[in-house]
Design goal:
By secondary structure, this protein is an all-alpha fold. Helix content is 72%, strand content 0%. α1 (7-28) packs antiparallel against α2, α1 runs parallel beside α14 and α14 (284-291) crosses α17. The two termini are 38 Å apart.
Length: 366
């Protein structure tokens, strides 16, 4: 019997996706601006929301590291992931063309991005996540062979290289990609693996996780706000004021670990709620692929009427409605996509079974 997915981590996947949609709303809609450009209370509130949501992407990769080190690597998963990405890349493009939101002649060489979405980093997260999955059996084997001290030291040096250095040095570093690369994903994967092997999920760990998450998010927001104030007066610290809103900033990393620890210790009883969470969570990646398409990003302003709430407190209720609509629509579309893929997979499987058994489709004499 197939083991049930752990509902607490499935809920974290849903929460993380909602956080990611919030981030896209705040940035693509130009609701949250750098503090050096806008010191209003409204912008500080938007920045505070961003601080508490910036951990969403990291949590996804932490979950992967937590489970992949103990799971079986499957080539079919690689093909499924690539097919899902290509499906959305082409589907959204076709819909936007059909709706007249974009003209074919405007796309020019962009067609290559939609035909080869993984290689072109059309979806940056999907591209680097695929590389991470390809490397996951090697990483899992290494984690299982290393003792705790060695694994902790390796992880510590990687974090210094990818996170601590960029956090302390107030200038842009050539090798720093703000967490938009599989080098940073490697750090998160090993962190998740370490928590799986040597962490604890006792109730008090959840409380500590909540405290770590909240305190690090507040600290990152405060650093950005202070640097924004200095920038307005002196014109300096522009880079450092934006750094707390990058995935590999150390407060963001610690906040991600805190939120992960909170959900790891969460206990949700079986029942309807748990069943619904398990149904919804597998669709979260599809939600991302649907709304993060570059043609959709370009149209966020016109689709959601963002100009009506820019610079206004109305962005709060508007954000709640838009995030809910994006999530629900994306979930519905991916549910249909999953049903379609399941039927195609079943048909392909039947064909192979007939051929192996020497049936009519195998080409043998009847």
């Amino acid at each position: 019997m197939k083991a049930k997915r752990q509902v607490n981590f499935e809920l974290l996947r849903i929460v993380a996706m909602l956080m990611i949609i919030v981030l896209h709303y705040l940035n693509m809609g130009q609701i949250f601006l750098p503090y050096g450009a806008d010191a209003s209370l409204r912008n500080h509130v938007a920045g505070l929301i961003e601080s508490f949501c910036i951990v969403g992407v990291n949590c996804y990769v932490l979950i992967s590291g937590y489970f992949m080190t103990e799971s079986v690597w499957k080539p079919a998963r690689v093909l499924s992931l690539a097919a899902q990405v290509l499906f959305y890349s082409l589907l959204v493009t076709a819909v936007m063309l059909g709706a007249g939101a974009v003209r074919a002649e405007e796309l020019s060489y962009e067609w290559l991005r939609y035909l080869f979405p993984l290689q072109s980093e059309h979806y940056w997260f999907a591209s680097h996540y695929l590389v991470l999955y390809l490397l996951s059996p090697v990483l899992a084997a290494g984690v299982q062979r290393l003792d705790q001290k060695t694994l902790r030291n390796v992880l510590a040096f990687l974090l210094v290289f990818f996170s601590v250095a960029k956090t302390l040095i107030p200038v842009g570093l050539v090798m720093d990609h703000n967490g938009y690369d599989y080098g940073w994903f490697l750090c998160l994967f090993l962190t998740g693996a370490y928590l799986r092997r040597y962490g604890t999920d006792r109730p008090e760990t959840g409380k500590r996780g909540l405290f770590l998450y909240a305190s690090m998010c507040l600290l990152g927001w405060a650093i950005a706000a202070v640097c924004g104030a200095v920038e307005r007066r002196t014109g300096s610290l522009t880079y450092y004021g934006n750094a707390p809103y990058t995935y590999n900033y150390f407060t963001v990393f610690l906040g991600s670990v805190g939120l992960f620890g909170l959900f790891r210790s969460l206990r949700i009883g079986e029942g309807r709620a748990a069943d619904w969470i398990r149904r919804l969570a597998p669709c979260t990646f599809g939600v991302y692929l649907l709304h993060a398409h570059s043609l959709v990003f370009r149209s966020w302003g016109s689709i959601f009427g963002m100009e009506k709430v820019q610079g206004s407190w109305l962005f709060l209720p508007h954000m709640i409605v838009c995030v809910a609509l994006v999530y629900l629509l994306g979930t519905a579309v991916d549910y249909l996509r999953a049903c379609l893929f399941a039927r195609i997979g079943a048909c392909v499987n039947r064909i192979f079974v007939k051929r192996r058994s020497g049936g009519p489709d195998s080409g043998s004499a009847v």
